[in-house]
Amino acid sequence: GYAKQVNVDIGDAIKAGQPLASIDVPEMITGEKQLLAEIVQLKSEIERYEALAALAKTQITVAEADVKKSDAQIAADQIEYDRIRKLTESKSISERLRDEILSRLETSKASRLAVVAKVDVAKAALRAADADASTAKTTVDVARKKLKESQIMIAYATLQAPFDGVVSQRNLDPGGLVHSGPQKKPL
After folding, report:
1. What is the pLDDT of residue 179?
2. How many other CB atoms sit within 10 Å of the CB of residue 70?
3. Could you report the per-residue pLDDT of 19-46, keeping only the tens digit for each?
4. Cβ–Cβ < 8 Å for 187, 21
5. Which residues contact 186 (CB under 8 A, 6 or more apart)?
6. Are 77 and 102 in contact (CB under 8 A)?
């Protein structure tokens, strides 16, 4: 980058750790802002996935209650069918009524299968939401590590005095190019 600011001059007394100069690193600052925005976005996604998981849990509870309701309906229809079947065998009532009750029993059994399928779909939605939330959390962790690395690199843009002393040379002016690698002269 380029020297943004030079804080000391020849003859200045300095203390170890004192900022001597700062380097302008706009691309690093932009990268840091992007990582911060990405983390915020990912946190929102985590909240969305957790809400979807909560919704799926509620759907499972409702569907499981519907299964119990269907089981109760099947049991009631089965009892009624058994009673009507016996009456039909003794010729007390017509076969038509028995067939109607049998049809209702079969419909109740089919309805139960549909409700069981809803339980399975809700459980699959829960697993998917949990997996998506887990992936987003891992991505947040990675982004935080990248952010920390970026912040460390940005911190290197501030040149600090390695020890107490007096500035005897200054080979850097504001706007001057600072590059990594071996320097012909110390800054």
Report:
1. 76
2. 19
3. 999 999 999 999 999 999 999 999 999 9
4. yes
5. 169, 171
6. no
- The stretches of 19-94 forming alpha helices (DSSP H) are 26-89
CA atoms in the 13 A half-sphere facing the CB of 125: 17
CB 20 within 8 A of CB 4: no
Residue 183 scores a pLDDT above 70: no
The rounded distance, in Å, linking the Cα atoms of 186 and 2 is 15
Q: What would the two tokens of residue 186 be?
A: 């110390």
Residue type, 39: I
H or E stretch at 106: helix 95-155
- CA separation for the pair 176, 97 (Å, rounded): 99
d(CA 18, CA 156): 13
Asked if pLDDT for residue 62 goes beyond 80, the answer is yes
Q: Quick check: 17 pLDDT over 70?
A: yes
Q: Is 16:166 a contact under the CB 8 Å cutoff?
A: no
